[in-house]
Amino acid sequence: MTYDLILGDYAYSSWSLRGWLLLARFGVPYRVRLLDFDAEASVAQQLADLAPARTVPVLVTPEGVAVSGSFAMAEELASRHPEAGIWPKDARARATARTLVAEMHAGFGALRGDCPMNLRTAYSGVTPSAAVLADLARIETLWQHARATCAPTGPWLCGDYSAADAFFAPVAARIAGYGLSVSEEARAYVAAHLADPAFRRWRAMGLVRGATLARYAKPYAAVPWPGPVPRPARAVAEGTPENMACPYSGDPVTDLMESEGRIFGFCNPFCRDKTVADPDAWPAFVALRDGV
């Protein structure tokens, strides 16, 4: 059972990030179709074949039904794949996770508007408005409530990674990207998202696919991204790769990357470039490189 997943720009579409995590993080098979945020046609126009859907993400079921909205996607996928763990198994944790997701889905307009997700840059010197500070205070209240209610032993809100964490991943990106001040406990939760391999894969794709869109830029000083520093790598035109098949597709290699004195091959520039952006984020490449 493979789904079609229609997404916006990897670097800027926070709603798309939530939808993608619901499949990628829980092992649900999917194919991606990307819309162009730099096109003259609006997102709704680009989705004309899937009307009445008007925004991304959109999940198309194997039966051809378009499910629009990440909350609807979470519910539909959880009902179809109960084994995936999209919602916590424990009733108390599950109810808490659904409460958090509902509020995240419907609220925090000031944070969304003043601090749009931009995974291509990070800023310093941001002075948040009173409305943004109120949003952050409410978010911290929700996170504290989840941890107090569910008593997780790991970094996630309700036990194992769940839909609640997928929905708050873009919030973590905003807090990190704009250097917003939160408590030590909240900073640890944000850091867990930045280090999560799935989040890192999404950001790596956002760095190399699509145009840099000026409308998302803010007039603050740019600083390095606050997440883990990727292992050095670069695209190269020549060399003898250690592998003859792309670690992702299995197709013959055509494009090369050098990392720490070693050459690896990929089947197209995107496969290479997303790996260059963050080599350790990609399990298939790590298995090739490290022989595991």
UniProtKB/TrEMBL annotation:
GO molecular function list: isomerase activity
Keyword list, A-Z: Isomerase
Pfam families recorded: GST_N_2
UniProt entry tagged with the keyword Signal: no
InterPro entries for the chain: Glutathione-S-Trfase_C_sf, Glutathione_S-Trfase_N, Thioredoxin-like_sf
Signal peptide: none
Residues of the GST N-terminal domain: 3-85
Highest taxon, organism lineage: Bacteria
Descriptive protein name: MaiA: maleylacetoacetate isomerase
Species name: Roseovarius mucosus
